Amino acid sequence: MSMFFANDNNFVKACGGGTVGYCVAVAVDKEGGLVGIRDTKDDSKETLIFDKGEWQHFITAVKAGEYDIE
Q1: By C-alpha distance, which of 24, 28, 7, 6 is closest to 15?
Q2: pLDDT above 80 for 2
Q3: What mean pLDDT do residues 8-14 have?
Q4: CA angle at residue 55 from 47 to 49, to 5 degrees?
Q5: By the 8 A CB rule, do 26 and 14 touch?
Q6: pLDDT: is 52 or 2 the higher one?
Q7: Domain DUF397 spans what residues (predicted)?
Q8: CB contact at 8 A, 25 and 14
Q9: Do residues 51 and 34 lie in contact, with contact meaning Cβ atoms separated by under 8 Å?
Q10: Nearest to 11 by CA among 36, 41, 31, 32
Q11: Which residues of 19-53 are buried (b: 16+ CB within 10 A; e: fewer)?
């Protein structure tokens, strides 16, 4: 794992939907072109790392409603 993602200060906590306890932490390494995602409740889980293309595809799909649960 990149040293960038080993530093807790690089992560920002994001919670959605007003549901307490369902949060992720996100870090963007602009220099390396990577995005790291991790669970804020379980530090034992590894950080998931995505490249710029993967992240952009995910964001586009979210905005298009592809992951909406209804």
Answers
A1: 24
A2: no
A3: 90
A4: 20
A5: yes
A6: 52
A7: 15-63
A8: yes
A9: yes
A10: 36
A11: eeeeebbebbeeeeebbbbbeeeeeeeeeebeeee
Dist CA 62 CA 43 (whole Å): 26
pLDDT of 16 higher than 90: no
**Token pair for residue 35?**
């995005």
36 residue type, one letter: G
The sign of the torsion formed by the CA atoms of 27, 31, 61, 54 equals negative
Mean pLDDT taken over the chain: 88
Q: pLDDT tens-digit profile of 23-49?
A: 889 999 999 999 999 988 887 889 999
